[in-house]
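Students often ask why we bother predicting the structure of a whole assembly rather than each chain alone. The short answer is interfaces. A chain on its own may look different once its partners are present, and contacts between molecules only exist in the joint model. In this exercise we take three input lines together and write out one structure for the complete complex. Read the inputs first and try to guess which parts will touch.
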Amino acid sequence: METRPDSGVTPRIDSRQDRRTVVSWLLGGGVAASLASFFYPVIRFVNPPAVSEASVNEVDAGKVQDLKPNSGKIVKFGNKPALLVRINDTEWKAFSAVCTHLNCTVQYRESRHDIWCACHNGTYNLNGQVVSGPPPRPLEELAVQIRGDEVVISRRA
Amino acid sequence: MTERTNLPATESKNKTLDWLDERTGWRMVRDLADHKVVPIHAGTAWYYFGGITLFLLGIQVITGVLLLLYYRPTVAEAFDSVRFIMTRVQFGWLIRSIHSWSANLLILAAFVHMFSVVFTHAYQRPRELTWLTGIALLGLMLGFGFSGYLLPWNQISYFATKVGTDMAASVPIAGPAIAQFLRGGEDVGAATLTRFFAFHVMILPLITFGLVGLHLLLVQFHGMSTPSGVSPSQLAQMKFFPNFFLRELVIWYGVLAVLGTLAAIFPWELGQKADPFASAPAGIRPEWYFLAEFYTLKLIPSHVWFFEGELLGLLGFGLLAAGWVALPFWATSRDGEHRARLVTGAGVFLICYLATFTILGYLK
Amino acid sequence: MRAPAIIFLLYWSLSGGAPSAPAADSCMTCHSAMEEGAKGPATLIKNDVHFAHGLSCADCHGGDRTSDDPTIAMSKPKGFKGKPARTAIPKFCASCHSNPDIMRKFAPGERVDQYELYRTSVHGKRLAAGDTNVATCIDCHSVHDIRAVKDSMSPVYPLHVAETCSRCHSDKQKMAPYKIPTDQFEEYRSSVHWEAMSKRGDLSAPTCASCHGNHGAKPPEVESVAAVCGTCHVTFEELYEKSVHKAVFSGAGGGGGCIVCHSNHGIHQPSTAMLVGPHAVCSECHDAGTAPAQTAAQMGAWIDALDRALRQSDTVLAHAEESGMEVSEAQMRVTDGREDLVKARLALHAMDPGEMRKPIDAGMAIATETLGAGQAALRERDYRRMGLAVSVILIGIAILAIRFLIRRIESNGNREIRGPQQGPL
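Now the answer. The structure tokens for the assembled complex follow.
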């Protein structure tokens, strides 16, 4: 701020200068705030979120020892259930566990080595194909990989 | 540039600016910009629309680059990545909705800008090239709209692209080749997505930046146009910097407010993941900027005389487009007489046609 | 019964499909040239599955097809049997259809015990006693234009079975002497099973023959009703068998298992209105205020509560979705809750509240979770709108500030320049 020569200026000119200052601050503040309100979302945007994967393509289904041969278990795959079946010591299969009839969750039947839906008695074989009952379509098959002693279920390419 | 002698260091900040000026010559640009003026008359408000279009293009580039940080251009992941942006990424919903809304506003602004040029007759000599680059840019914006629309890979966009590329295929002689080039194959599929992504993110932007640069350069070269028969010397002028530009900033802020409101209150929908084996959703139609042509083609009977209806329609559009591109050249007769009324009439006709058929396309 | 028909159709289609007429068939030639009545069979047979296999008139009726002289063609020495009496029809058809050596030539997988079954049926027994009003083979399968069961125009195609049975069983005059009610077809047409078959196209849904048998048609015994229903509704039967109702409903006068509550032909979509309320079936045996009645009310209340809770979640989530929030994950979770509701309704058949607790609790947990998600989404929406309002205000302030700046710069009238300037260059 420049020093004013002391020449008995009227208060009116003073207040105009003050008004200009106020306006300057308002201008700077308003523009700055508005720019901040644009930059804030952008900066938050470029920071990756906690869950960094867009869609579930792969899920850890536990350890090899956890599942006995000729048994199955339900595993969460994204937000849908998946059925992991261990057929014998070395063969594994996985399917979407959503029954294609009315979306109940299917289960593995050890006695018959098949997949069964308790709601309306739909039966699928270990290829996911419908054997009997009302389901209109086969179960979607998923890929199983054994990495060391980890079982990993993923979508088929 | 004359060699600079040591200037007295009156204020410290000038030293840095001097250093820069010696090396970049920025003061020359500033002096040129300082000379830019905008004529003041009844139609001055229309001058804003070029800037609005440019501003929205800038918004698209920024939001587009941000989306590029998370979008995945494959059939398996595209839809899920957009859903991810909408639901998981901080303010992803905002960036994505702004990008989608701004795309529409950009095309609307481009049309308004073009029609304002038509009605103020700013296409006349010597500004024919400005007109041509402008029309090319409009085409590019439509190309951006078409290619970007497919990227979320939902039902509507998949089938709209099918319909659109089918229409391209009906162009005589070159049609099937054009459709193959667009689709990257026989059908709309993974190859199409990859291609459209390349168009949208690299090819079209490169061409656009070049043409925008040329367009702006030409505008600076010729200066702002004035109403017919009025020479610039007869008009009061406003300095571009800072007077006109500050007003432009006000308008740009207003546009931002509109965009933010649209994004927050009417967020862009996600839709359902594209399923090529499902039947097309009922009432499938392209986005509004293609709707007029689409609806016109629907109305033409399948055979007119011995010509195939669709063929006739596309030929008609082709002729119309060619005529429109060549506007500056037929707007002035051999004797130099400016056919203002003809052009204004053509402009009004085109607006009425586009508006009517777009509305009809929505209602039907 | 379907597998043999499939094999039969395969054979039929592989053999060229079109009916292959045997060479120079005098029966066909003469009868085709006749008036209505005698002409009928010759026209109808073109659609017959036997004809498609090269069999024609003489193969069933006997006689000599090579002779143009009717007195020879239709003579007893030539084996002509003529039109069989109604009581003889089943045996007539069985002469081939019960003979494995013959059937193996055309449809090796097809059953050959239809006649044996028929004889055990109500129809068969009455026919043997001389009653010609009962159904014989041709009443259901038609005659001369007999189509395979898999043929959608066949009267015994699953969609048509009920209609075929109702031709007699809905006829009051016909059924009067046997004192059989005639409302079954009408009831069945109002049932969920018919809806499943006709509207949803589920051909595996039950029709008359599914529960009564087709050739050996007889209503199931009281104690076997649950087993019959249980062929499809497996888990319900399992639970019912362990429940207190089994002993009560399976005895003589017990009413017959499932049909006591669900009816036999007019089976409708069940609801908690069956448990409690003015139309409750429980109250037909259990007086109000007794322990069983209270259990029924309790179970009904639980199911209704879970249903209401899930609906509420649905509403809130739909509201959030309409406001533009992404809630598809929570909405998918609600379907998990619906599955628990299905399981709760299933558990009901054990008539034991303990069985029901688990799915009810699981379902309620999901309902609470998804309701929370929906409300969080609505809060997020409000937060966004608040943010929008703030930034619009800030933009407004910025705009005002710029306008002040403009006014200040131009306060000395230095907006306008007059002069010949055109462009900066």
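Check your guess against this: The radius of gyration of chain C is 36 Å.
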